[in-house]
Amino acid sequence: MNIKSLLLGSAAALAAVSGAQAADAIVAAEPEPMEYVRVCDAFGTGYFYIPGTETCLKIGGYVRVQVDGRSDFDLNGQQGGYRTNTRGQIAVEAKNDTEFGTLSSKVTLRANTNVSNSYSVTVPNDPADPTAGSTTYSTSQANNDFYLEETYLQLGGLRVGYFYNYFDNGLPGETVLSDGGPGFGGGGFGGDTLNNSIRYTYDAGSFSVYGQVDAFNSQAGWKTDNGSDDEIGINGVVTGKFGGVTVDFFAGYDFDREEAAFASTLTAAIGPGSLGVFAAYSTGANRYFDASEWTIGAEYAIKVTDKFSIAPGVQYWDNIVFADGEGDQGDAWRVGVTADYKITTNLAAKATINYTDVDSGTDSADRWDGFLRLQRSF
């Protein structure tokens, strides 16, 4: 056998083996196309499409570490000292377009290491019989339990769920208190700002108006038709924007206490900062505003640099004790300053110090209070 015959035979054998192997080869299937998360810019920054849907989702929140301090306050027995607290909050928002307008929903969960939350309501067993006793319904969360904060659904201008009312808006500083008083005695100041409610808003851009119905203390107990308190309130806000000036007017009525509250906030861009003025009047203690008969406060938020701003403020309350009869019902005033510093993207520090002087008509006291806060938002 010569070399040429040997090479030809080897080539034929290799071809036969290769053909047999090719016939038995396993061909890998083509991978299915993946659907990557797409950015949704229809409702602002931070939204993305839920894969396979036209619903846009946004996940946000913050982590806050804070140290509070205060001096003694003899008027209601508060002792001075300090406390620390760490808070975590997560908010999930979902939006999509429908033939009726934008369908939105929001779920907010919050937990603190040093703040407990409890709600209760006491209902008489028989309002006509004082000896029949009463029943208290209550619910509470431990210091480190997650609990439900503002959570609602909205279709177009109609919102239903658990959300804040006007008196939680406030001014950007920490001195002017729109949702209540500076903690003097005589009752639970601060109003009832977070409830199960229904609201309709008409927004025309430079002009908007909303009407709202609130179910007060609706997180505790059954509401029965036994003559117990009617825990319903109605309120509305009209807002107008004129260039760099925004002004609104609020009116609310508490059906249980049969008292009304009125308030207005004005903000205006002036010079290197923004001036804010808040005023409120109450016909009597009610769940919208029960800090005083009337109050007025102002602050000026000054933007010193792109990262640093300060906001000095002052506020005055008159007739801080809602009681029957004539005479001096006391007053109070408060002055302070808040500083904000943007450390880097999504990380900021806030510090405030305030002085409050209270004259209840029969006694007087003063107090220093403030806090230092570090917050990472996302």
Note the main attributes of this structure.
porin activity, 16-stranded antiparallel barrel, globular, 21 strands, 378 residues, porin
- Classified by CATH, the class is Mainly Beta
Work out the helix count.
1
Largest sheet: 16 strands, antiparallel, barrel
Poorly predicted runs: 184-189
Membrane topology: Multi-pass membrane protein
Subcellular location: Cell outer membrane
Protein name: Porin
InterPro entries: Porin_alphabac (IPR003684), Porin_dom_sf (IPR023614)
SSE blueprint:
Layout: H1 3-24, E1 39-40, E2 47-49, E3 56-70, E4 81-98, E5 101-112, E6 117-124, E7 134-141, E8 147-148, E9 151-155, E10 158-164, E11 194-203, E12 207-215, E13 232-242, E14 245-254, E15 259-270, E16 273-282, E17 294-303, E18 308-318, E19 331-344, E20 347-359, E21 364-377
Antiparallel strand pairs: 1-2, 2-3, 3-4, 3-21, 4-5, 5-8, 5-9, 6-7, 9-10, 10-11, 11-12, 12-13, 13-14, 14-15, 15-16, 16-17, 17-18, 18-19, 19-20, 20-21
Structure characterization notes:
With 378 residues, this protein is mainly β. It has a single domain, classed as Porin (Beta Barrel), CATH 2.40.160.10. The chain is built from 1 helix and 21 strands. The chain has one helix at residues 3-24; strands at 39-40, 47-49, 56-70, 81-98, 101-112, 117-124, 134-141, 147-148, 151-155, 158-164, 194-203, 207-215, 232-242, 245-254, 259-270, 273-282, 294-303, 308-318, 331-344, 347-359, 364-377. The strands form 2 sheets. It has a 16-stranded antiparallel β-barrel with strand order 3-4-5-9-10-11-12-13-14-15-16-17-18-19-20-21. A hairpin with a 2-residue loop joins β4 (81-98) and β5. Mean pLDDT is 82; it is low at 184-189.
